[in-house]
Amino acid sequence: MPAGAALSGGVAGPDALRPLLDAVLAGLADGAALRGGPLPAGGPAGVAALVAAALGDREHRATSATGEPAEPSGQGHPGEALADDGNHPARGRAGEPAVPDDVLRRLTALLTRGSADPADPACAAHLHCPPLALAVAADLAVSALNPSQDSWDQAPAATELETALVRDLAALVGYDPATAAGVITSGGTESNLMGLMLSRDHALGRAGGHATELGGLPRDLSPRIFASEAAHFSVQRAAAVLGLGERAVTAVPVDRDLRMDPAALDVLLKEAVGRGETPVAVVATAGTTDTGGIDPLPQLADIAERYGVWLHVDAAYGGGALLSDRLAPLLAGVERADSLSLDWHKLGWQPAPAGVFLVRRAETYAPLARRAVYLNPADDEEAGYPSLLGLSLRTTRRPDAFKIAATLAALGRTGLGRLVDTCHDLAHHAAATVRAHPLLELHTTPVLTTAVFRYRPASGLPADADRVNAALRRRLLTEGRAVVGRTELPGRGPGRVRLKLTLLNPHTTPAQVDALLATVVAAGQAEERDEAERAGEPEGVLEGVPA
């Protein structure tokens, strides 16, 4: 057998993995040292050259043991990584057989050097957490064994483990585990799609008099989904995938904290019903992507109940608050949702994917029921062999429940809750620092772990603020100094661009948050100086922007 063809499972699997894992760990250390910051400097062109030098240039593609690439000559193409000539750098030096651990170390170093590292305190743009080492190690076991959750005979223990975890998570959100149901998903996008699919089949099947999943969409109905202006874009995408069309989504106004306005929802639902339209779902958000805002769930549940409309809560971000005694009350009312999305690869510190979809009543899952004779034959189920096939949109599905279960077993809700509280404290520290700085402006008080703000240019003009804030963020990316988020507030016209720190690293210190904000200010000042030079403005015209 060729080198590198050993298997990861069986009795011999651990011995085959051990030197390769050592190579991966060495490559991670090599690449992090070469990167020297939160992301590689040079922007897209620099990273493209880095990868091309390692994979695509036949004359200059040799890499050192630490993954240091030579400068690319412009020849070759990254697609040559698939060439079967035995001489590609991903297989070994020209004319020499590949050494798997050497290959792995060099390519891991390349990947690490060219990555944005959420474990770096200056990498704070997205809901992109640094995973716990414990969870990553647990994920290794899953990869080595490669179970698939579409039939019991491919994943006996994993099937039972996921079933138990779903029961525990149902109890965490306030559902009755005996009557709820759910599944582990790839994340909030898949979970939101599932919630809206079940709500579609519930509402349109009831209104049209036939099973929508079998007969398709009734032609004489006008379905409507109601979500806030700050809801995740996956709601529109789900509406398109489900055949409803993005225009079926009605945007409900929000307040300054990007929370849905219940009075506006009531009016919009009343108007839709008056026009003969069919409300399919109200989508509440518990933790908006930009501000962490949480919609008023009890009021929205009251309104949805009054109109007989399915309530889906997207708690992909805010669901992590349920781990914290301090923050859990923010999600009061979530237990009244018909369906719910959670993501443990946000405020749960799991490597992606680690999404969860739950329904309050298991019978509402009926449209997803599926029988495949080679996976879950009826006589197997009658004989006591359980099946998760009818709980997911996917067939092949890895047991991502394992890493979540391992983390909960080791840290418990209390341990994870402390991590949530630490990140919440960091967000409030960031907000206090922003408030105290004359060149920064806070948008709103943090709810979860996100601080939204902007740099204030000397001119004070809204259009200038938008331009400078967008440019300073790109400057930081190009220089490899920081990864800061960018967003735009709802509305029209200039003055809506904001920056954000999404603080998901519980090992970050308040001093490191202050340093990151100082870096943002320095980049803003540098951007203003550069703009003045390009415009040929006289020295001193930008008062308060030091050289």
UniProtKB/TrEMBL annotation:
GO terms for cellular component: cytoplasm. It comes from the Bacteria. The modification N6-(pyridoxal phosphate)lysine is found at K346. One of its GO terms (biological process) is carboxylic acid metabolic process. Its cofactor is pyridoxal 5'-phosphate. Residues 59-101, 527-547 are annotated as: Disordered. InterPro entries: PyrdxlP-dep_de-COase, PyrdxlP-dep_Trfase, PyrdxlP-dep_Trfase_major, PyrdxlP-dep_Trfase_small. GO terms for molecular function: aromatic-L-amino-acid decarboxylase activity; pyridoxal phosphate binding; transaminase activity. Keywords: Aminotransferase, Decarboxylase, Lyase, Pyridoxal phosphate, Transferase. PANTHER family: CYSTEINE SULFINIC ACID DECARBOXYLASE, GLUTAMATE DECARBOXYLASE-RELATED. Belongs to the group II decarboxylase family. This is Aspartate aminotransferase family protein. It comes from Streptomyces luteoverticillatus.
